[in-house]
Design goal:
With 231 residues, this protein is an alpha/beta fold. It folds into two domains: 7-100 and 132-172, Rossmann fold (3-Layer(aba) Sandwich); 190-229. It contains nine helices and five strands; from the N terminus they run βαββαβαααβαααα. The protein has helices spanning 18-25, 77-87, 100-113, 120-126, 135-145, 154-159, 161-172, 190-210, 219-229; strands at 7-10, 32-35, 56-60, 92-97, 149-153. Helix 2 (77-87) runs parallel beside helix 5 and helix 8 runs antiparallel to helix 9 (219-229).
Length: 231
């Protein structure tokens, strides 16, 4: 058996119930060697050091299909899929999708709640890669690259988490574990996110003012305050 013959890779998408799977489902699967997220500064091939010869290997990392929507400069979803195939051509892929409008709102919500200062329109036009909304093209690419691909929708998780998990377990030929139906987070409306962003923009302006030489001693106070308000 080749090194990737018993490898399953859950590639996201980001904001599609990945945390639920990584905390409540994947670690509880029997006879499965669950490989948690690798160091994001490292290389994908490093996960081979954690492979088990006797168990099914499962690796989950939503950043494999997540452009760096907080900043610019990360490979596209399609490019990363091709890299995965080059390293693990026999891997079996699990992909979770989400309603496109809701997915965009959720991505922008995280952007605005961290350090994002752009409005939704600015973020969508300047940062977001529109190609990543072409789910149909991406699914076709995965099916062209890999022999076994499971595609599930986040909406099914919200409606029937038992069925959602069962489909994954059937795909992997493992028993369904007992898991907690943790709360599925619902992103706030864009107008509420915009309010948060505008407050953050004002605070950043204050930081820049107090970062001048004569006000430098207050800078750290504002930084800590922003971290606190975004918890």
């Amino acid at each position: 058996m080749k090194k990737d013959g018993n490898l399953y890779i859950h590639i996201g998408l980001h904001k599609t119930g990945t945390t639920f799977l990584q905390q409540e489902v994947f670690p509880k699967l029997k006879n499965v060697n669950y490989i948690s997220k690798y160091n994001r500064q490292g290389s994908l091939h490093l996960i081979t050091t954690k492979f088990s010869k006797d168990k099914i290997n499962l690796f989950s990392e939503e950043h494999l299909t997540r452009q760096n929507y907080l900043d610019d400069g990360q490979a596209s979803m399609s490019e990363i899929a091709k890299r995965i195939h080059k390293l693990f051509p026999e891997a079996k892929i699990i992909l979770t999708l989400r309603n496109k409008d809701d997915w965009l709102k959720s991505l922008y919500n995280q952007y605005a709640r961290t350090r994002g200062l752009k409005s939704f329109e600015e973020w969508y036009n300047d940062v977001f890669d529109k190609e990543d909304l072409n789910f149909e093209k991406f699914v076709k690419l995965l099916n062209d690259l890999f022999d076994d691909v499971l595609v599930l929708e986040y909406e099914l998780l919200k409606k029937d988490s038992d069925l959602f998990v069962k489909k994954i377990c059937n795909f992997m030929n493992v028993d369904v574990p007992k898991f907690n139906n943790i709360f599925v987070y619902k992103s706030p409306a864009l107008k509420d996110v915009e309010k948060i962003r505008k407050k953050g923009k004002t605070l950043i302006g204050l930081i820049r003012f107090f970062s001048s030489k004569e006000h430098g001693f207050i800078e750290s106070i504002f930084i800590q305050f922003i971290k606190w308000i975004n918890r």
